[in-house]
Each structure stands twice: as structure tokens, then as C-alpha cells.
């Protein structure tokens, strides 16, 4: 799967959402999250993020490793809805993201 890391927090540009052919990028309160079971690893989202927040899971920089589990934790309750557009914006963030200081410019 691909992962959304720290640069997305409080930025949420959402250019990635338009690119994803399987609509698996979901909106939380402070970040977006890729559903790991729904992502087909097409990679289309990665180059369009203006802040370079998206990485293939094996390429996530060490300091952003907690974002791998944070992306998965976002879906603990939501599961695999099969499409972000029908879920829409949520106010939810996993504890790790919620506890971060304010980010972005
Ligand atoms: Fe975030 Fe970049 Fe997408 S800022 S919403 S990962 S385009
Ligand atoms: Fe979608 Fe990006 Fe995965 S475009 S299928 S979330 S690699």
C-alpha cells in the first residue's frame, strides 16, 4: 500500500483524491488516509501531492514510520467501505495524529 505521512497534516491539499482510480483516499479531521486493503498500488497519487506526503510503504522515511500504522488505524472502525466519496469528510483522526502539534504553514 501507499501511505500518507506528516506533510499532509493540517495541509490536506486533496489533489491525490482526484487521481486515485479506486477512490481509497479517505478524509479525516487533520489528514487524509489511504485504505491499505483497497489501495491497488497504482502510484498515481504520489507525484501529484504538492508537499510530497505520499510514499510507497517500504519507502516511508524512518522519522515518519508511525504514519504507516496511523494510516491503518484510521480504518479500525471504518473498515473497508469500498469508496471514499460515499463516506465523505470525517472528523476522526487516530490518536497519534490527533496528538500532533499544529502543522503546516
Ligand atoms: Fe494530503 Fe498531499 Fe493528498 S497534502 S490530501 S496527501 S495531495
Ligand atoms: Fe490510489 Fe494512490 Fe493507491 S492513487 S490506488 S491510493 S497508490
UniProtKB/TrEMBL annotation:
Query: Pfam families per the record?
Result: Fer4
PROSITE patterns given for it? 4FE4S_FER_1 (PS00198), 4FE4S_FER_2 (PS51379)
The entry's protein name is: Ferredoxin
Q: What is the annotated role of this protein in its UniProt record?
A: Ferredoxins are iron-sulfur proteins that transfer electrons in a wide variety of metabolic reactions.
InterPro entries linked to this entry: 4Fe4S_Fe-S-bd (IPR017896), 4Fe4S_Fe_S_CS (IPR017900), 7Fe_ferredoxin (IPR000813), FdxA_Actino (IPR054830), RnfB_subfamily (IPR050294)
Cofactor(s) for this UniProt protein: [3Fe-4S] cluster; [4Fe-4S] cluster
Sorted alphabetically, the keyword list is:
3Fe-4S, 4Fe-4S, Electron transport, Iron, Iron-sulfur, Metal-binding, Repeat, Transport
Is Repeat included in the keywords of this UniProt record? yes
Domain of life where this protein originates: Bacteria
Cofactor details (free text): Binds 1 [3Fe-4S] cluster.
Q: Which organism is it from?
A: Gordonia desulfuricans
Recorded GO MF terms: 3 iron, 4 sulfur cluster binding; 4 iron, 4 sulfur cluster binding; electron transfer activity; metal ion binding
